[in-house]
């Protein structure tokens, strides 16, 4: 059972700030770092109980991703390295908001009873804890540790500063019983990358030993940790900018979120000397990445940004993976039924979805916004790829299919090409982070795919042309009034809103629009796309008026 006096004693050190409601949003709790001690302490309790309940190691990460430096937050990683089970979210939220200490014990006991926390599980548990580079991180990590240790039988292992995906990867590796150190993480990515590059059929440029990628580190943990890979990755030369030194501030005018939303160069980019070179931008905790390059233009500055977002990344990876999968399917009859699918959200540019369906013939499904939704859907395929347009995504291999690839003897593949395809897919599975989207993994997977296919970033960009789009946010009295269905593509409440949107859409060429309540801000978001930028802008404005 629960040691109530131990819990109360520990909890009394972390009083709840009055007058604030903390909600477990799309990706955990987030707020100004100065008011989060109590919430983080209690998230430590949740992680400890989850560890007892699953009999596995759990992760707890202190980060606020792309938010400003003074913010912070906490997310919990489940045994497979994915996000905390949604069934536990209401518990995490009610625990975080309980103002009476006696009731804290009651909330925990009720939940434990209901879920048989101690029945199905181990008598001891373990939680791995890490944080990004935010100044409030050290103090909050300690609060989380005390929360974990408030539950008897659970130990806290503080790893220190990591990217979010590194922590998720370690949780997954620990529970699979394989090497789970930071060094193991780097060597898995680099050996997968080497394997892909070694199999490149013909190299165009044997004279140039390496490709240059310029990285925007968002002045965060990604810039700092990338050096661990830089040292052991062949064939890629990295030039990392916005490392957090030289006065750069985390996420301020830098990072993937800034580049993708504002369509602007991050600081220290956009120089004439960078023209046409491949650039990549991480977000503050390095679980997101977008690519871009600079192109000569006629306007005042003379240089414009060409963005390659999550949809373009997804499409590139789908082309690369499908090529090898087809080889396998056609040569090895018992693999002919292996299925492959991609997962997007309503924000995916219509041109990407059309290309995936019509040109590649792959199955495309939509889910609501939020990584957990996409991840679970992608996990249903033998190989599933998911990406949000904002650059969060990864590739998942179903356990059974992965086992077939690893266990089949070379002779059973019949042809050399099929054997090679199997090895390539295995190498891809090493480079990707199957726990969660990972800027490092995606950076090197994209780079290896481009090298393999002998493409430049411009070739990649030309796969399809994005439809012009516009996003707006609208302040409303109560965004909870708005309800959606069909993966947020249609509104059900308030009544009449969907038909008003339909009327606006009909006014423009190739129009598409939807609205949804934000999960992270007190606003309603509007998305519109159409054949021209003017029409997309006009459609977004028209829809926004109906939302008010
Ligand atoms: C969170 C989600 C992200 C989503 C965004 C939408 C995770 C790890 N992050 O940042 O996937 O795109 O919320 O924000 O799930 P919104 O609801 O405010 O539009
Ligand atoms: Zn992030």
UniProtKB/TrEMBL annotation:
Top-level taxon of the source organism: Eukaryota
Domain Alpha-D-phosphohexomutase alpha/beta/alpha, chain residue ranges per copy: 55-89, 98-176
Residues noted as binding substrate in the record, renumbered to the chain: 388-390, 516-520, 525
Segment forming the signal sequence: none
Gene Ontology molecular-function annotations: magnesium ion binding; phosphoacetylglucosamine mutase activity
Domain Phosphoacetylglucosamine mutase AMG1, first and last residues per copy: 180-290, 309-455
This protein's UniProt keywords: Isomerase, Magnesium, Metal-binding, Phosphoprotein
Species for this entry: Ceratopteris richardii (Triangle waterfern)
Active-site residue list: 65
Broad EC category: isomerase
Textual note on the cofactor: Binds 1 Mg(2+) ion per subunit.
Pathway membership, UniProt: Nucleotide-sugar biosynthesis; UDP-N-acetyl-alpha-D-glucosamine biosynthesis; N-acetyl-alpha-D-glucosamine 1-phosphate from alpha-D-glucosamine 6-phosphate (route I): step 2/2
Cofactor: Mg(2+)
Reaction equations catalysed: N-acetyl-alpha-D-glucosamine 1-phosphate = N-acetyl-D-glucosamine 6-phosphate
Annotated residues for binding of Mg(2+): 65, 283, 285, 287
Protein name from the UniProt record: Phosphoacetylglucosamine mutase
SUPFAM superfamilies recorded: Phosphoglucomutase, C-terminal domain, Phosphoglucomutase, first 3 domains
EC number from the UniProt entry: 5.4.2.3
Alpha-D-phosphohexomutase C-terminal domain mapped to chain residues: 488-541
Source species taxonomy: Eukaryota, Viridiplantae, Streptophyta, Embryophyta, Tracheophyta
GO biological process: carbohydrate metabolic process; UDP-N-acetylglucosamine biosynthetic process
Primary role: Interconverts GlcNAc-6-P and GlcNAc-1-P.
InterPro entries registered for this protein in UniProt: A-D-PHexomutase_a/b/a-I (IPR005844), A-D-PHexomutase_a/b/a-I/II/III (IPR016055), A-D-PHexomutase_C (IPR005843), A-D-PHexomutase_C_sf (IPR036900), A-D-PHexomutase_CS (IPR016066), AMG1_II (IPR049023), AMG1_III (IPR049022), PAGM (IPR016657)
Family stated for the protein in its record: Belongs to the phosphohexose mutase family.
